[in-house]
């Protein structure tokens, strides 16, 4: 399937392609165009529009596009919802929701100047979102097993958490 969004990607427009490829459409192809050309691309290519003004998979009800896609596709993954807080914070500058959003925003802002085009930006951002997904998973595991972890030394904690990261996929 083809997906279309605005050119000059930043937080939401790098996070959404990662989300789409990982959880919705592994064969997704992305098209980046000026905002005024999105409707034409939708009509001529049958592309699904996202993170653009007035589209179903865009900002709405105080949510960023990443959150809207999670909601629309009924993605029920606790780790993904934790990551959505970070993406929301970075995209909307709502730093109270997740302080990590400040770092994500800084990374995606700088990253735009280290790539040739939006395709490369999205490709390189995949590593960032994979790492954040793992970070969120670890964060939730630490909370879930905090009582057990308190009884372990650092090496035991590390081994325990590595095992749980693999088990709870």
Summarize the structure.
With 169 residues, the chain is mostly helical. It has one domain (2-139).
Distance between the termini: 26 Å
The sequence of SSEs as H and E is EHEHEHHHHHH
What's the gyration radius in Å? 17 Å
- What is the spatial order of strands in the main beta sheet? 2-1-3
Average pLDDT reading: 96
Please provide the count of β strands: 3
* Mass-distribution shape: elongated
Secondary-structure-derived class: mainly alpha
Describe the protein.
- This protein is mainly alpha-helical.
- The protein has one domain (2-139).
- The protein has 8 helices and 3 strands.
- The chain has helices at residues 12-24, 38-45, 65-72, 78-92, 100-111, 118-144, 146-150, 154-167; strands spanning 2-6, 29-33, 48-49.
- It has a 3-stranded parallel β-sheet, with helices on one face.
- The mean pLDDT is 96.
Name the features:
single chain; 169 residues; mainly alpha; three-stranded parallel beta sheet; 8 helices; elongated
Q: What is the element layout, followed by pairings?
A:
Blueprint: E1 2-6, H1 12-24, E2 29-33, H2 38-45, E3 48-49, H3 65-72, H4 78-92, H5 100-111, H6 118-144, H7 146-150, H8 154-167
Parallel strand pairs: 1-2, 1-3
